Every structure is written in C-alpha cells, then in structure tokens.
Amino acid sequence: MISVSLCVIVKNEEEVLAGCLDSVKDIADEMVIVDTGSTDRTKEIAARYTDKIYDFEWVDHFAAARNFAFSKAEMDYILWLDADDIFLEKDREKLLELKASLSKEVDAVSMYYHVGFDDRGEVSFRYRRNRLVKREKGFHWIGAVHEYLEVYGNIIETEIAVTHRKSEKQHSPPSDRNLRIYEKMAENNETMTPRDLFYFANELKDHGQYQRAITYYHHFLSTKQCWIEDEIRTCQYLSDCYRAVGHEEAAMTSLLKSFLIDCPRPEFCCRLGDFFAEKRQYRQGVFWYELALSAKSSDAGFTQLEFSTWYPHLQLCVCYWQLGDREKAKIHNDKAASYHPSHPSVLYNQNVLGT
User: Fold this and answer.
1) Are 197 and 183 a contacting pair, CB within 8 Å?
2) Average pLDDT for residues 284-302, to the nearest whole number?
3) DSSP 18-76
4) Average pLDDT over residues 96-116
5) Does 198 lie in the same domain as 139?
6) CA–CA dist 22, 28 (Å, integer)
7) Which range marks the domain in which residue 132 is found?
8) Last residue of some domain: 125, 143, 170?
9) Distance between CA atoms of residues 286 and 280, nearest Å
10) Is the per-residue pLDDT at 49 higher than 70?
11) Which H or E run includes 148?
C-alpha cells in the first residue's frame, strides 16, 4: 500500500479546516499544513491533527506557497486540498480503495472537482484536477494566481470527487486579492504567460471591468498558446462581456467561434437558444436547444451539467408552447421534471399544462 502526505495551505480557515482534515484523517499518513498569515484559530485547529505546521510569509504567489508545502512532504504520494474541500463518504471509500491498490508505476491521479451545486445540492459544475502525485517525481506548481500543478508520465483518471464547500466569507462579493496581484504584475511590466492573461481577464470580468476584460481576452487568444478548454471558455466569457456592454452581435459571434475550436458544447448551444428565444424566434431556439441535448460535454474540461439535462428541455417546453405545440411542450416539461422535479418553472408549467 502506498503512503500519502496531505498538503494544505491556509489563512484564516477556522470555519472549514476541521471538516477538511476530518474527511482525510484516516487516509493521510501525514498532514502538512502551511499557514500564510492566519489571525484566527486556524493553527490551533490544525494542531489537533498534526505537528507538521509551518509558517510561510505570503509573497503574492500561490505556487510558491504550494511548492513550499510539497517540499515538507515525506510520503510516497502527495494529496493536495484547499481548506474548504472535503471528500464525501462515498469518495472517501473510493480513495481508501485506491490507496490500497494503486500501483507505484502511477505518477499522478486525476479526480473530479465538484464546485457548483443547484438548489437541491446536486452537482451542476465540475472539472478534473490532478490531485494525487508521486512525490519523487518532484512535480511543481506554476503561477502566482490560479496556479496549476505541472504533471507528466503515467496519469490515470478516477471517478473520485473532491467537493468544494463554500464558507460564509465566499458568499460575499468577490475578493479583489487576485485582481490586485495581476494589476501589480501589469504595473511592474512583469511578463504574463497566456494563462495569466486569461485569468487576469476573468478577474476583470468578475469585477465588472468588461471593456478591459475584452482587451485581455483578445491578448490571450493572440498568443496562439491556449489550452483548448480555456480558449473555448474565452468564447463564452467574451460573449458575456460583449452583452454587458451592449454589443449583441459580437456576443453571438463569440459563441459561434467556439465551433471553430471543437464540436458544439451543450452550454454554447443553450446560450444561442436563449439568444433566439429572447428575440421570440422560437423555431431557431428549438434548433439550438435540441442540439444541446445531442451535443457532448468534454470530460477533460469544465462541465455545466444543467445545459445537457433539464435546462434545454425546460426551454424547449417554452418554445413549443409559443409555437402552439402543446403536446411537445408537455413532453419536454416532463423530461425537465425527470431531472429537476422541484424547479419552480417546471412546477408552473405543470400547472399551466394541466399535468
């Protein structure tokens, strides 16, 4: 059986840290906690689980902190989490099984990251991350913000999921911490990688600076060094920004450009369906929502599950109702209900349709 080091970097995580560590305490053979300046009870809580607690002076660089944590690990493999991540019981069991059976020929293990949930608590947004890596390979983190772990070799994908739990502080308006780091890089004329340009644009968008975001998204695309999933998401985010500044045609064109990169994705088909439905062009809307149901999401990328399940069916119900086809409207509302029976619009439609 392999041995596992858990590595977590923290700052003021007293609200969530115990839950994180409880979910892996019988899986990790050691826990490495790196504190970047907590002023609450974070370190006190960490001390209940481990004596490997280290201080790291924050230097506006997440990769530096994560690499420091990795340097303190001593077991065969390193498992990394954030303090607000947990393994649910079903995933803990899968991870225990993996630990008992994993071949040491494996260099890295990919797991799902569940980060978005609907009003029922069902997963609505997920993607993959390399979570468990062989220590002796010396894999390093890269990037000041939105850092990534550069891995290679024998990588396996599993159905194990890490679940992200939002703390109360994450329900407040977005922090400007990441934006400030990027602004400082720009002011100091530091070289930005294509990934930096992409995430800088995301921060600008999230803070309502749409015109600047558009500029940086185009800078990112012009590098021609884009990960396909980020390039596709750029089409979506550019569309959002153009809509926010009132450029509807550019917004639609940005969505269509995603089809030059890869096969149509459900979320883009639904957005195009929305575009036509809002203009009361329901036949065109039907085309795109139907396409969303037959399109495939990328397991390697970011998956918003509602766009291939209940949402297009719900919108098809509306479109067919407006087109005078009550039978098809009912069929699609019933299908939407099979995925999301408690959705207010589904319930409203059932009342109108008399079902």
Assistant:
1) no
2) 86
3) HHHHHTTTTT-SEEEEEES---SSHHHHHTTT-S-EEE----S-HHHHHHHHHHT--SS
4) 96
5) no
6) 10
7) 4-170
8) 170
9) 11
10) yes
11) strand 148-150
Segment 15-25, tens digit of pLDDT: 999 999 999 99
Alpha helices (H) in 295-353, listed in sequence order: 310-322, 326-339, 344-353
Of all residues in the chain, the percent with pLDDT exceeding 90 is 85
Length of the chain: 355
CATH code for the domain in which residue 347 is found = 1.25.40.10
Cβ atoms 80, 8 nearer than 8 A: yes
What sign results for the dihedral spanned by CA atoms 209, 117, 345, 283? positive
Of 144, 170, 196, the one marking the end of a domain is: 170
Two tokens, residue 23 = 């979910």
CB 216 within 8 A of CB 179: no
CB count in 10 Å sphere of residue 289: 30
Sequence-separated (6 or more) residues with CB below 8 Å from residue 131: 79, 80, 81, 109, 110, 111, 160, 162
Find out whether 281 and 323 touch, Cβ atoms under 8 Å. Answer: no
Contacts of 97 (CB under 8 A, 6+ apart): none
Residues of the chain with pLDDT > 70, as a percent, come to 96
> CATH code at 158?
3.90.550.10
Write the single-letter amino acid at 229. E
Give the pLDDT band (50/70/90) at residue 105: very high
Query: Residue 117: CB partners within 8 Å, gap ≥ 6?
Result: 123, 124, 125
Q: How far apart are the first and last CA of the chain?
A: 56
Residue 323: left (phi > 0), alpha (psi -120 to 50), or beta?
Answer: alpha
| Nearest CA among 321, 227, 314, 244 for reference residue 274 | 314
What pLDDT is stored for residue 296 in this prediction?
78
Question: What average pLDDT does range 31-44 have in this prediction?
Answer: 98
DSSP 224-283: S---HHHHHHHHHHHHHHHHHTT-HHHHHHHHHHGGGTSSPPHHHHHHHHHHHHHTT-HH
Query: What was the pLDDT predicted at 267?
Result: 93
Which residue, 235, 178, 232, is CA-closest to 207? 178
**Residue 171 belongs to what H/E stretch?**
none
